[in-house]
Amino acid sequence: MPPKSKLGQNFLRDSHAIEQIVAALGDLTGRTVIEIGPGQGAITGLLATRAKHVIAVELDHDLAIRLRVQFPVDKVTVVEHDVLDFDFIQASAQAGSPEERLIIVGNLPYYITSPILLKLAGSHAAIDKAVLMVQREVADRVTAQPRSRDYGSLSVTVQAYGPVTQLFTLPPSAFSPPPEVHSSVFRWRIAPRFADLGVQEQAFLQFVKLAFVQKRKTLANNLRAAGFAADEVAAALHQAGIAPQARAETLSIESFAALAKLLVPANAMNMAS
After folding, report:
1. CB within 8 A of 214, min separation 6: which ones?
2. Model pTM score
């Protein structure tokens, strides 16, 4: 079955990489795994031997039919669906025990990687961890630390929902057809930090987004452009111990939280709001 370029289909062929990806998920005994974009089932087959159940979310109608024939229904449920509309909360509730959270794995289509990451973040209550393959440059951004070139809004947003670790990188030759870029695999352990930071989730993430609107500008300039008063920004930076000319890329998540609590209205930042 030929890949469909409009769906960003590049099928993993490297058996060692498949083993590494599944191993990175840890012990799957008794667990339900959601696979995003199973494609031709290369990872699905190994998952089915180790997990209690696999829910394979596949948008391509032809591939979904093929997967249903390929795997027994008691081990693999194929859901023909757009993952951006998939209900992870409901899937978790149906997985078994009420406290069970899902394990996610997937070779994410490059053209919708960020929306999928945000979808998973928004479903954090239902997810334990995820091992995801993305374009190398995206993995670099997701796992970047402050003061690095790749550190930005996506870095802070993803890491606010839990620690990320880049695992390994694959060349185009590991796929069929070969993509034009390298791919990297990272592990994301879902453990939201908002309560510990003392910030409200959406208000904090919106503040971070405003801080990074133009990375070449100073943090103060970005915040003033977003509507914060110049004197209030200057005072908050001083109180938070942040240099007046600092750029957003130099701030840790903790520093962003401290600054947000000084600038964002209390009724918006309150954890109960």
Report:
1. 221, 222, 225
2. 0.91
